[in-house]
Amino acid sequence: MAVIACQGLPPVNEPEVNPEEQKEEPGLPPIDETGGPTLINAEIPPVVSTKVSLTAGDAPGLSLAWEAGDAIRINESLFSIVEEGMTASKAGFTGPSLSGSSFTVLYPGTFADEAAWNARSYKGQVQTGNGSTDHLSWNAKLSGLSSYGALFFADMPGQEFVQNGVIKFSFNLPERFAGLESIGLTLPEAVIPLTNDPEGEKAATLSIGLKEVDVTKESREIAAYMMVPPAMIVLEPGCIYTITLSGPDGQTEAIEKTVDADGLVFGAGRVTVLSLDADDLQEPLFWGGEGTENSPYQIKSLKHLQNMNDLIVSNAGASKLYFKLVGDIDMAGVDWVYKNNSIGNNFPINFDGDGHTISNFNMTQWSASLFGAIKGEVYNLKFKDATIVTNTASASRGGLLAYRAGGTDTAAYIHDITVDGLSVTGTTSAVGGLVGGLTNGTIENCIITGLNLTAQAAAGGIVGEILDAESAVKECSVSGTVTFSGGASGDTYQGGIVGKVAADGTISRCHSSVILQGSVHTKILGGIVGGATANVIIEESAFDGSLDCINSQGGGILGRANKAAVIRNCYSSGSITADSGYSGGILGYSASENDMEINISDCYSTLSFSPTNTYSANAVGGMIGGHDKATKKWCVSGLLAWHRKISFPNMGNATYGVIVGQMHSGASSAATSFSNCWYRSDLDYTLKGAVKTPRSDEDITVGGKKTYDGKPAAGGMTCSQKAREVGWSADFWDFSNDYPVLKNLP
Predict the structure, then answer these.
(1) pLDDT of 438-449, one tens digit each?
(2) What pTM was computed for the model?
(3) 248 lies in which domain range?
């Protein structure tokens, strides 16, 4: 017998097991012994707690009756039931004459011997139908008998009797369960034998599977029966055991129960009734799970999502919690308020969307987003038709997932997010499609289609601004519009992927099909990145949207670089319109100083240039607009200006060039290198309506504001042919078409 005591409680004496005194069931009555060596009698009581033919009755126990076809085995010899004169409790059995002084009786006789009876497993039990007992079977053993003419299946002098038990689960299934697939019982220790052998394998949990359980009835009353092995298990008062209900789609709820002052006994011929009442079945915080890596909290409803919102804040500073979306959630009409609004909260989470969709998310708040400030990991999540509005004049970031993600002490990793239909409106601080501000984080493999982003400050299709610590955006794609809505800021960086890089950042393998447009206010636009006030690397990325550079600086890949910048293996197509400022097919403007290097290599552009007739200042270049600072080092190679037409109308005092519009005189010849820069031989190049012949002067470092056109490729040469000739890597580029195609774009 296993006795489980609870810490802090006084020990209790093991009860004397007397069937007459068990509150669950009455004991077994004695019978008269009759019969001979080949015809024996066996008796069972009319109501006991286990089974030959167990059927549910009015009492807590189960009815027990002999059945036609029953058999018992005595010392490995089979004895068959005599149906004539058989009653529910008495029957005769016939079999061979046996000799010996010790006999063991097994029921049912289908077990070949005692070893087979001992090995009978209680794992994998399944009940078909609510309240059914068809799956139950009685396992009984009499041993130490000196004779077998009359058998008493009870505790009697001179014999050892063991029998299995039954647990009956009784409760009303809550409406939140669409069905019930299993019930599990977990004890504080691994004391449940999994076979009839009390010395065999033991576990803390035993469960019953359920099939065809009808929960459409108004009462939703559940009756489920689970067999337990013959060993007696006693739980002392104060012990805690757990009943786990599992429904469809992974729904799991674990209900903890405390043993009362009478204690609790399982097995050894008992039917132990375990009931759950309304207090036990209060709706839990989540659909299931324990918040761990192996058992994440399961989120299936809006209530579960809000409970997660509350839990993130209430457990701030604790270990990481894990969440998993197990169904689609429609948030139409929901007034959502996130709770985690502190970027100093170091409590990380792991949120697995599991491919499910959150639709119609709509939030208006000073820093609107789903999670607020977030650290940890969010992934495998889809959104449909979402709206984000930051509605205050004070500094307020915003983004669909977080107004700020990551921190200098705890990273954020956001990946495999898909958004179909997103409206974002920002006021005076950074907003992004997914994240307003990113610190010490990585965003990877995220796709947004149908973006409509309007902002007065830094704005990006994926990230508004990279802040404070090095971060990366990888393999992301955005299509839609990013619009500057006015305002007095000098900090209006707008990019198809990232608006502003204010801390060192890397953007790789990203694709932007964004239309960037705005008002007459000064701004900085980039097809991939608007502007960088910190070091930036942009690689294997492409832009094929349009730039509306009104009184602005703009570049097909990067609008402006204030520090060191690397742009490699990128291309731009689509169109650019400008009236002033610096504009270029790859880089618009560089303000880098103090030995900051600008490194651009293996890029091409087919961007269509359409400067307005009022264009009158600064510079336009097919690949690089230019700079007016004394950048100490330019390292440019492998640029292909493969525009079909470049037309500059009324240029005023502006400078222009097929490769570079303006190179400041401060750039020293020793530190500046332009090599292998080409334009297509049939370029249609006009200035103020007149055909212009590109300059062949390759020295752009001598005096004044110099421009650079590069060299013409051989007639009829495709861009791919020239790229291969120049030495672009086939690791990044596919040269099978007229224009090179990046292999690793999302």
Answers:
(1) 999 999 999 999
(2) 0.76
(3) 2-275
